[in-house]
Design brief:
The chain is α+β, with helices and mostly antiparallel strands. It has two helices and four strands.
């Protein structure tokens, strides 16, 4: 892609790539990771904190904890 800082490109093996169904915002990446870890943690809630810069980030909680907060 091209940004104010110049042209950027990246090459990775397909096996290391994951295509998200939604936009790759830090919020969506954190939520995707929380949802992917949820089945591995059983009854424990997963919290993912992702950063994209100084004071810029997102916190996502697995569905287990979200359901408990509703109850």
């Amino acid at each position: 892609y091209t940004a104010l800082q110049g042209d950027f490109s990246l090459r990775l093996p397909v096996a290391l790539c994951y295509v998200m169904q939604d936009q790759s915002t830090v919020e969506n990446i954190a939520l995707e990771l929380a949802n992917r870890f949820a089945p591995q943690t059983g009854d424990e809630a997963s919290t993912i904190t992702a950063y994209e810069g100084v004071s810029k980030g997102a916190i996502a909680v697995s569905p287990i904890m979200a359901q408990e907060a509703i109850l």
